[in-house]
Design a protein that fits this description.
It is globular, with a radius of gyration of 20 Å. Strands 1, 2, 3, 4, 5, 8, 9, 10 and 11 form a nine-stranded mixed sheet that branches. It has 223 residues and is an alpha+beta fold. The longest helix is centred in the middle third of the chain and has 14 residues, at 133-146. The protein has a single domain (2-73, 110-212), classed as Alpha-Beta Plaits (2-Layer Sandwich), CATH 3.30.70.2660. The chain contains five helices and eleven strands. A hairpin with a 2-residue loop joins β10 (198-207) and β11 (210-212).
C-alpha cells in the first residue's frame, strides 16, 4: 500500500524567461502574482499528461530564483468571438464571425515576472477505480523526462513558454531557502467549475522558499 501511494506523487521543475499569473482584482492592466498559482501549475501538469481517469492536485510550490518584476506593453485584442453571433449565423446560414486585429487591437501595460524557476510537488487522484496509479505515474515520468507534452505548457500567458524536466530527490536549494517567512496575502487557488465558475483563494505564505498549497476542499480555501 505504501508503494502504491508513493506512485502518485511527482516533482516537476519548470522555468522560463517571462511569466504572468494575473491578479483577478486588476481589471485594466495586467499585474502578476509574485509566483505561479496552483491553477497555473495544474495547467502545466495537464499539458504534459492529462487523462480523464485522473485528477491533479498541487501540494507544494518551491520558488528557486529571486522574485523579479519588469514592465512591458503588450498588444491584445479588445473583443472575443460572440456565441450569440455564431448561433445567429448558423440559423441564417451566413454571417460575419471574423475578428479584425487592426480594428480591435489594444495596447496594455503589464507588470510581469522575469527569469522564473519553480519546483512543483503534486499528486494525482485516480478517479476510475479500474485504473492503476503506477501506470499513470510511469507515463507522466517518461513524458516529463523526454520533454513530451500534449500542447506546449505556458507560464500564465501563451507567449511565455514553459520549459520543464522531471525531478528526483529533494528540492534544490533556492534563493529563499534560508529566508524568513513571507506572507503574500490571498492568492487564487483555482476555479470552482461546479459552482458557477467561482474563484477560490487561499493565504499564500512562503516558508524557507516553499508555499504549501491546501487541498481545494480544505477550509483554508475560500470564495
Amino acid at each position: 500500500m505504501k508503494d502504491a501511494q508513493a506512485n502518485r506523487f511527482i516533482k516537476l521543475r519548470i522555468w522560463g524567461e517571462y511569466a504572468c499569473f494575473t491578479r483577478p482584482e486588476m481589471k485594466v492592466e495586467r499585474v502578476s502574482y509574485d509566483f505561479i498559482t496552483p491553477s497555473a501549475a495544474r495547467g502545466v501538469l495537464e499539458a504534459i499528461y492529462w487523462k480523464p481517469q485522473i485528477r491533479w492536485h498541487v501540494d507544494r510550490i518551491v520558488v528557486l530564483k529571486p522574485i523579479r518584476f519588469t514592465n512591458v506593453r503588450r498588444n491584445e485584442v479588445g473583443t472575443k468571438a460572440s456565441a450569440a453571433n455564431a448561433k445567429k449565423a448558423m440559423r441564417a446560414g451566413h454571417g460575419s464571425l471574423g475578428i479584425f486585429v487592426e480594428e480591435e487591437r489594444q495596447q496594455r501595460a503589464a507588470t510581469i515576472l522575469r527569469d522564473v524557476d519553480y519546483l512543483i510537488e503534486a499528486h494525482f487522484e485516480v478517479i476510475d477505480g479500474d485504473e492503476l496509479a503506477p501506470k499513470h505515474y510511469e507515463m507522466f515520468k517518461r513524458r516529463a523526462a523526454k520533454g513530451q507534452c500534449f500542447h506546449r505548457p505556458y507560464l500564465g500567458c501563451r507567449e511565455f513558454d514553459c520549459h520543464f524536466t522531471w525531478h528526483e530527490g529533494d528540492a534544490p536549494i533556492g534563493d529563499y531557502s534560508n529566508s524568513d517567512d513571507r506572507d503574500f496575502g490571498y492568492m487564487l487557488h483555482d476555479i470552482d467549475f461546479a459552482h458557477d465558475m467561482t474563484p477560490r483563494f487561499f493565504r499564500a505564505v512562503m516558508r524557507r522558499g516553499a508555499i504549501d498549497v491546501p487541498q481545494f476542499e480544505s477550509t483554508e480555501v475560500h470564495a
